[in-house]
Amino acid sequence: MITGHAGLVLGVADIQEARRFVDDFGLPLRHADAETVSFELEEGSTVFLRHQDDPLLPPPLGAAASGVREIIWGVDTREALNALAASISQDVAVTRDADGSFGFVDPSGIATRLRLFHRKPVLNAPEPLNAPDAVRRLGKHRRWRKRCYPKVIQHVVYVVDDALEAARFYIHRLGFKLSDISDGVGYFLRAPGISEHHSIFFLQKGAVPGADSPRPDHVSFGVEDIDEMMVGANYMDRRGWKKSMGPGRHRIGSALFYYFHTPFGIEFEYDTDNDHLDEHWQPLIWEPRFGMLAWIAGDMPPFWRQEPDWNVRYVPADHPVFVPYETVAPASDAQG
Ligand SMILES: [Fe+2]
Fold this sequence. Notes:
InterPro entries: Glyas_Bleomycin-R_OHBP_Dase, Glyas_Fos-R_dOase_dom, VOC_core. This is Glyoxalase. Pfam families: Glyoxalase. It comes from Rhizorhabdus dicambivorans. This protein is an alpha+beta fold. It has a single domain, classed as 2,3-Dihydroxybiphenyl 1,2-Dioxygenase, domain 1. Helices cover 17% and strands 32% of the residues. It contains 6 helices and 19 strands. The chain has helices at residues 15-25, 78-88, 163-174, 226-238, 288-292, 302-305; strands spanning 2-12, 29-32, 36-40, 46-51, 67-75, 94-96, 102-105, 111-116, 152-160, 177-182, 186-190, 200-204, 215-222, 243-249, 256-261, 267-272, 284-286, 295-296, 312-314. It is globular. The two termini are 39 Å apart. The mean pLDDT is 95. The protein binds fe (ii) ion. Fe (ii) ion (FE2) is lined by residues 155, 157, 218, 220, 269.
């Protein structure tokens, strides 16, 4: 099964500027040469930077050459890897690389790779929170940090032409689980081998301001707690990088968030205190404004400023996202 993100390949216009941003954001450098810079997170996943015109890169999703050019999913066994490649080859062309990984462009146009990957455990020890008469931390203060060091790739968000169809492909061909639906806006899915609320979100083109055409939107990296997130935000501010939005807390998935503009088009997000789900979870359909924000500090974006409807309901069993994904017959075979 797919156990999470093994890596990302980013196309960038200026490798040194992109490297400076990712360094400041806190990803540990692994390797740098003339063509590529790579960062390896504690979980073992890798973020590669390559020049956006590098012929080795797959085609971009949308018009912009910069941003996420390939998403790499980790698979736990060789047998599972081969089975997944067989599953998706019903719908799209799949190529096998010398290293045994499989590459394809999904039906939404997202360049994707599947490879064997064994995620390493990460060392986190979030400190207990105190409240009046509910003392969890006595006689010691919270840790002091200078920097934020994300340890995992948490999720990736793409604007796509048809978020429902994108979700169906991932559920029925790749085994993803539906976590929640933002009504009319998009689908939150988690890889089957992890419990984090979502590992990918498909945002429906045209559903919200700024989502006008297919493109990679942002990548989220998991940090330990709100203190690490805000120390990171202060550090990024001192280094001259601009925030997009935050801090705040989503209601869907419960995560605390802080988004930054990157020099390569997409946004990078710090993310912490997510919901974790298991097989008992029943997916919900959320009114979008209600689901998007539990709260946000200060600068509320105009679209989200409007008071939300407190409207949440369970996804019905006959929702179209649960209709099995079937290969469309070639036109020559179609009747009539
Ligand atoms: Fe996010």
